[in-house]
Amino acid sequence: MDLYESLRRRRMVRAFQPDPIQPAVLDRVIQAGLRAPSAGFTQGVDLLVLSDPADRATFWAAETDMQWRDAHPDHQATRQAPAIVLPLTGADPYTRRYSEPDKAAAGLQDAEAWPVPFWWFDAGAAVMAILLAATAEGLAALFMGVFRGESDLRHAFGFPPDLAPAGAVLLGYPAPDRPSPSLARGHRPVGQRVHDGRFGRPWPAA
């Protein structure tokens, strides 16, 4: 499958079969995340892969509680995903990198000096690479926020205090699911989203 076909087919899937992913397939998808761009070649995004059932149970125990699960029964199929990837990042690896002699002139030794926090950009780029690779491998994927339980996750999985999950990528084989109701919004026309030379001048889409 070529890149453009992967882009066309990629979507967020919210229901997974419990079947494990072949190790070689999972490795290729994870390795794709390491090929994403990195500011200053900091390589400041670490990927924590949870494929052991006990580790996945720990993740869901930190992220949800019984009340939430009872209120969202459809998400039982979401929690069947056989692999969860946490992209971990933070300001410290980037401020350390930009304190080195070849980058110090940029004046980005402090997190507050960054006009855009590129650690989040790099994490998003890694996530997109993983999503596209998953699509190319015939896998389903979902990117979701990590809205609670970060301290429990850090305690359980040992990642350091200067790194935090930018979210979580669920990977597996697709099960029948209901597309997000947000899709009813439809696509904004290209001419409204891409501007030719001046904001508001529509791009002449083919």
Characterization of this structure:
- About 35% of the residues lie in helices and about 15% in strands.
- The longest helix is centred in the middle third of the chain and has 19 residues, at about 120-135.
- α1 crosses α6 (about 120-135), α2 packs antiparallel against α6 (about 120-135) and α3 (about 55-65) runs antiparallel to α7.
- It has a single domain, classed as 3-Layer(aba) Sandwich (NADH Oxidase), CATH 3.40.109.10.
- The protein has eight helices and six strands, in the order αβαβααβααβαββα.
- It is of the alpha+beta class and about 210 residues long.
- Strands 1, 2, 3, 4, 5 and 6 form a six-stranded antiparallel beta sheet that branches.
Percent strand equals 5-15%
Q: Kindly provide the radius of gyration, computed on alpha-carbon positions and rounded to a whole number of angstroms.
A: 19 Å
| Annotated CATH topology | NADH Oxidase
What is the domain tally?
A: 1
Distance between the termini: 23 Å
Instruction: Describe the largest sheet.
Output: 6 strands, antiparallel
CATH superfamily: NADH Oxidase
Task: Please identify the structural class as seen in this structure.
Answer: alpha+beta
